Amino acid sequence: MPETRWLPAIPAALLAALLLSGCFDGTVRSPTEARGNRQAHRHEHAGHRQGGGKGRRQGDQGGGDVVTLAAVGDTAMGVTSTLPAEPATYFDPIEGELKGDVVFGNLEGTLTDVSESPKCGEGSSECFAFRAPPEYAKYLAAAGFTLMSNANNHSYDFGEAGEDETIEALHHAGIEQTGLPGEVTVVKAGGRKVAFVGFAPYSNTASLTDLDAARELIRQAREEADIVVVAFHAGAEGSDRTHVTGEEETYLGEDRGNAEAFAHMAIEAGADLILGSGPHVLRGMEIYRDRLVAYSLGNFSGFHNFSLEGVLGETVVLHVTLAANGSFRAGRLASVRLVEEGQPVPDPEGAGAALVAELSREDFGRHGVEVSSRGRVTP
After folding, report:
1. Within 13 Å and on the Cβ side, how many CA atoms surround 121?
2. Handedness of CA 307, 345, 140, 251 (dihedral sign)
3. Residue 81: is the preceding peptide bond cis (ω within 30°)?
4. CATH class entry, domain 50-378
5. For residue range 251-310, what is the model confidence (pLDDT) as tens digits?
6. Any idea what DSSP says for residue 226?
7. Which of 263, 283, 302, 340 is the Cys-Cys partner for 296 at CB 3.0 to 4.6 Å?
8. 198-211, pLDDT tens digit by residue?
């Protein structure tokens, strides 16, 4: 029987603070042992091949080929039965920004018709389980998404059946996914093989906190692809959690990892780009060994999924161009604001990009990126 760990009752004052931070997670997900067989099938679907590990290809210095990516943070479209009246047009305001050889997002929740959640007790008002209908995958695909991560604290909200249906829905819509234990997803982009690996501190995901296992998985991905992108769901949540601490972070008693230590380890193991999510706010970006680390891309969309006050409603679309050897070539931040019912719209005031610029300076000094008034990202 899957092990479930429940958190103690939460005082009303603390619950109010949690609601402002984004979302509350009441349990650690525990998939069954049978998942291994399904994983093998999913890897085959994504073009994964088994292989050993090795370091970065030192001899490849790039050349003319480049790979372009667009990436966003926590992405949701409501909770059944609180859903957008016109889901097909939900992402229309940002049409044109979700474009690139790969368009990536963190799918914060599930796409399933499974109605019972092992996470939340019956009638619970202190726990959030996110699900939208499986057919919503086609709206994500139509918006431009080509690959999404399931490595987060809501991917197992409706258990194994809900997670399986989510992945099936994504694949049916033509969207690849990553983030399961041991999972490496390889796609073709810009004439190159690009591997994606997703990490979070949960048993149904590749582990964020087991650094040795994470290092080996990244090395395996390095063996299988020309470029390796690592997504992680790390860090404490809330409007006061915009800074990268360089220390282990916890949230509601749960170990959310040391984002900076993990990112540096990942790049040393062979990762070329780090895409972070989890805190529900934007965080700074740095260049480490010529590779870009985006510590948190914040909330991107959510129809009544997240609080939108202040910095919780400021976000960006990160556009990145990588050289053929994976090094950072160019970048741009398109500022976006979540309005009314969590819908992303362009922000002409550029608040998201300005916040990333400020945090990058404060947290990383000369290693932080610079962001121009037009959102251009440079080392």
Report:
1. 10
2. negative
3. yes
4. alpha beta
5. 999 999 999 999 999 999 999 999 999 999 999 999 999 999 999 999 999 998 888 889
6. S
7. 283
8. 999 999 999 999 99
